[in-house]
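Handout for the seminar on molecular recognition.
Each group receives one record of this type.
Step one: identify the two inputs.
Step two: read the structure output and locate the region that could contact zinc ion.
Step three: write two sentences on what you found, then compare them with the reference statements printed after the record.
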Amino acid sequence: MSSNIKKKSSSMDPTIERININHPIPILGDEFTNNIPECDAFIGIINDKKNTSIAIKKITNILPGFGHLKRCSEGRLLLAFVKNNKHNNIEQSFDSIEKLKSFLIDENFNLNIFNDNIKIISVPALSPKTKLQAQISSKIWPINFHPDPCIESIMSNKFFNDNQLEIINKCMKICSDIVDVTSVKNLQCHGSAVIVDPNDDSMKLLAVTTSQTDKHPMWHAAMLAIDLVAKIQGGGAWKLHEESSPLDSTSRKRKLQFKLPLCYPGCLKDRLNLTDSLNFYCPKDDTNDDPKDVAYLCTNYWIFLQNEPCPLCAMALLHSRVSMIFYNNTNETLGVLQTKAYLHTLPGLNHRYRVWKNFINA
Ligand SMILES: [Zn+2]
């Protein structure tokens, strides 16, 4: 991580603008934030503790499943789900106590180990995804739960270290600083974008853009930023960079030959110089010609946006393979990472990015 940032953090120089460090808010799918739904299940009360282990073994054999639920708790043996529960369709279920009893008798299960008649209670219908969900669910019925360290660090604001947080805050501030200067507003999608390579000590700033939809209907800030990254790698669909002549066949093989970051419109570069404090980027002249050495487009890069992206930008970012999206404001018209949809949580995507929202505007 950049040593410049560490120096700035401890500096007493009053001319250096200090930024209040905020933790970005993770935008997670409902499965991480909602309470676990409940469903009905049949239980039997075991009349003698000595029968517990053999009863568990027998019932697990004839009615397997229930992976997220302990099979027995305080003498109560979990037998089966009540049929028609929308949350369970794998384990065998029954629509009445009589039918369950009949099945158990056919399977030579000794019903005399139970005190009373079989009962129906509520149990967690699904496996928890977080410790908090697990704590709540376990009060209903004991569960099997193994926390995901990555998810827990996100939920507890420990995912990013201090240097990363400072860079995140700076980049989000850049987005808001530049947006009113050059962004062309469009009801569907507008704003600014900053793409950063967080994968080495220099934390390189690669591309800075604002939306220019008056020039081209697809020139949303994120679309332009992706194209500038492609240009850095010798590609790019649009002629955007005023400082560079059209790439010839030789220069196309050379990468990172521009002075970073690339900006569109070009006047943003002057604006960046005014805003501060961008000494965490380190232009690098990498002339390695082997295309195998370059990961596909924005793989593992971070993008910062002034506004929640529209479907066009969100899908382009998905295909570009950025690893993180941070945005300052919701896009009430067409935002698809929280407002209208949670695109990044949908099943069947061939790539996933994590999404974060500015603490201040949460
Ligand atoms: Zn867009």
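Reference statements: Residues 189, 220, 222, 309-310, 312-313 surround zinc ion (CB under 6 Å). The longest helix spans residues 162-182.
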